[in-house]
Amino acid sequence: MNFLPKPKIVVYPKMVIATATSCLKHSTAKIDVFLTTNFQTALGPIIIGKVIEEGTIMLAGPTTNRDMNSLLAMLKTYTTKLFVDGAFNRMTFSSMAELDGIILATGAAFSPKMEDTVDKTAFIVHLFNAKSPENVMEIEGSMMIKTARETYVNHLKSIDWFENTIRRMKDKVEFIYIKGAITQRLMNLILDTRDEHITLLIDDPSKMLVHHSWMHAIRALKLNIQVIKPIPLLWITINPWSPTGEGYDQDLFYHALSDVIDIHVDNIKRLENTWTNLT
Question: Fewer CB within 10 Å of terminal CB in the chain, N or C?
């Protein structure tokens, strides 16, 4: 967690925005607020409004998955194109699977060590590159473990059940389904089997809540991660500078990242400078 001020974004006339009421005090854009919702936050209730004059605005959204999902449904009645701003570690709301695509912003704000940022970004790209199974089997319960001879199902998500079941199995594990988040404890239990080529089916890429340092073990055991609902990763933007003024060599950062991923990468600071010079 840091205590840096929330960044502002530029908004243009006819855009529809949703944010907390207190954020409007720091806005330079003129907003016509036409709805105050019942979604409460520490910064006040969430409002929906239309931009009248261009300017900047701070965004703050609902604090619960239910409210976020409801807000997205409400916004879809006012606009056909919806952009959701949020940090990757807080993106596990259930409507993530309904998004058409992701633009990932990464950079020096994540870590003062460039290698950590590159490794974390590469891990995220690996997850979003996960495919759906070619032959979708019928999923039972919240947890399922399959071997060549047996299928074990638990209708309630229970780490204790998963641990007890997987540790007493004598046959090689071939398939695992886990509903919801994959925590580091669950991943540790999976990797502790030492079985290679396990297929791990998860709901969507955002449910994998494990540290990027586990990527080596995942690759070593050839863990085949598949997703029920893939979410296209469309674009990666990099910012070699953190809000505190620290940063990386921008060319070194760009090439280090481009060498390990297959998604288009743009240096957002250079793009900003180009746009500024053009205007």
Answer: N
247: in domain: no
Closest C-alpha to 136, from 61, 230, 248: 230
The strand pairing partners of 154, in sequence order, are: 143
In this structure, the answer to whether residues 78 and 153 fall within a common structural domain is no
Structural domain includes residue 232: no
**CA 189, chain centre distance (Å):** 23
Number of domains in the chain: 2
Determine the length of the chain: 279
**Amino acid making up residue 233:** L
- Domain range for residue 40? 1-85
Q: CA 153 to CA 161: how far, in whole Å?
A: 10
Q: Which of 217, 158, 230, 211 has the alpha carbon at shortest distance from 190?
A: 217
Domain final position from 43, 65, 85: 85
Cα 90 from Cα 199, distance rounded (Å): 26
Q: Would residue 235 count as lying in a domain?
A: no
Establish if 269 belongs to a structural domain.
Answer: no
Same domain, 157 and 223: yes
Tokens 């288009």 found at: 264
